[in-house]
Amino acid sequence: MLGLPKQLADAVSKLLRWQIRLSLPVVIVSGILGMPSWHAPVSALLGALVGIVPALVYVRIAYRKPRGAPGKLLSAHFAAEAAKLAVTGLMFALVLALYKDVVPLALFSSFFATLVAYWIALLSK
């Protein structure tokens, strides 16, 4: 996955599984509560993507070179975090600017679910 070492690829897969497990119910509930309109589940799906895509950007940048001097590895993580924040902000800006019928509660609920999943995946064995 993403050309990563197996142990790291397994951790990223675990993170993605958790993010999907926690955001999918938000999408489904948004769809049920938002019937007959599709704006709520689409908003929830976009919120999940705003949480998932920047995490993948982080992994791609931070682990471009899995070995190296500690200072270089730390710099890579700082650069990855900056990119993750920038991509998150850009994605939110695009969704809010381009999707006029966005349902903010659904968007931010599924985004929050991906953040919770991120920490569950990091803290679980």
Task: Describe the protein's architecture and organization.
It is a single chain. Helices cover 81% and strands 0% of the residues. The protein is built from 4 helices and no strands. Helix 2 runs antiparallel to helix 3 (70-98) and helix 2 (39-62) packs parallel to helix 4. 30% of the residues are buried. The mean pLDDT is 92.
Features:
125 residues; elongated; 81% helix; mainly alpha; single chain
Oligomer designation: single chain
Proportion of residues in helical segments: over 70%
| Average pLDDT for all residues | 92
Proportion in β-strands: under 5%
Distance between the termini: 20 Å
Question: Could you give a short account of the major beta sheet?
Answer: none
Please give a quick description of this structure.
This protein has 4 helices and no strands.
Helices and strands, with pairings:
Blueprint: H1 6-33, H2 39-62, H3 70-98, H4 104-123
